[in-house]
Structures are given as structure tokens and as C-alpha cells.
Amino acid sequence: IASADPLDPPFSIAADDCSNQTLAKEASCTVTVRCAPGATSTFGDTFDIPSDDPANPVVTFAVGAHAVLCGDANDDARVTATDALAVLKTAVGSGDCGGLDTCICNVDAASNVTATDALMVLKNAVGQPVALNCAC
Q1: Which of 13, 35, 77, 134 is at a distance of 20 to 30 A from 84, taking alpha carbons?
Q2: What residue ranges in 5-135 does DSSP mark as E strands?
Q3: What CATH number matches the domain at 69-136, 1.10.1330.10, 3.40.1170.10, 1.10.10.10, 1.20.970.10?
Q4: In this predicted model, what pLDDT tens digit does every residue of 67-85 receive, in sequence order?
Q5: CB atoms < 10 A from the CB of 13, how many?
Q6: Vertex 136: Cα angle to 78 and 87 (nearest 5)
Q7: Cα–Cα distance measured from residue 56 to residue 3, given in angstroms and rounded to the nearest whole number
Q8: Collapsing DSSP states into helix, strand and coil, what is residue 132?
Q9: 3-state SS assignment for residue 65
Q10: How far is CA 85 from CA 53, 73, 91, 98, 135, in A?
């Protein structure tokens, strides 16, 4: 897997149960691709999956990811008071984390988004030392 066309960072093969295997018809195996971006952006890449099928000796598989900064509810690559308001609206049920996955607003990695998350985002936005920890 990914021998002729390897993945470039931020992507990597985290687990591979397929390499050096011959699969029977209708059988499956699993390749886990990890994305560890160092910045907010959209990423894409491809990798190869070799096959013993003479008609399709190589299958190209595409991967993609959009990395969002933890607490950045409006996806503008910075955490501001506007994001804190979006997190608070999500916490009280009148918002949807700016349309993003709610884990971006759940900055304390607790079970759900609360006013504490909004306070943490606001503190971060004004420069107070607070670690935002999104578990997504």
C-alpha cells in the first residue's frame, strides 16, 4: 500500500492490514490513514493500492481533510469573541457551532458543549492562557 505513490504530510498510514495479502473475492481488509495537520487548511493527497488484477494493476485512492482550529466556530483560522458567542449559542441550544462539527466548540473535551467552553474560547481570544482541547 502506498509504495509507488506514498502519502505526503500531514497524511500517513497509521495501520495497514492489507499489504502483502491476497484477498479472496468479496473479502476486505483495512487501511487506516491518519491526518495530523500543523495548521488550519484543506489537505488532499492520493496513494496507490496494488492489485493482481491485470485489468486494474493499481487502484488510486484519494484522501482529504479540512483542519479547523479548536474553538474556531466560524472557520476563519483564528479564535475570536465571535467564536465564543457561537459556542455559547451552541451550549444553550440556539446555535449549531457555526455549522461545523460540535467537537470544534467542545474545547474542554467534555461530553457536550457548555457555557464553560464559551468562557474558555473567550479567554483564549483575549490572550489569557487557556488550553483548548478539542477531541476531534
Answers
A1: 35
A2: 11-16, 31-35, 41-50, 58-67
A3: 1.10.1330.10
A4: 778 999 998 889 999 999 9
A5: 16
A6: 50
A7: 16
A8: coil
A9: strand
A10: 55, 9, 10, 10, 20
Provide the phi-psi class of 20: left if phi over 0, else alpha when psi is between -120 and 50, else beta: left
Instruction: Give me the residue spans of the domains in the chain.
Output: 11-67, 69-136
- CA dist 80 to 24, 85, 118, 123, Å? 53, 9, 11, 9
Contact 79, 124 (CB under 8 A): yes
Q: How many CB atoms lie within 10 A of CB 107?
A: 29
Percent of the residues in the chain that have a pLDDT greater than 70, as a whole number: 100
Q: Cα–Cα distance between 29 and 18 in angstroms, integer?
A: 5
Look up residue 27 and give its amino acid. Answer: A
In sequence order, what are the beta bridge partners of 134? Answer: none
| Residues facing 62 on adjacent strands | 46
Q: Find the length of the chain.
A: 136
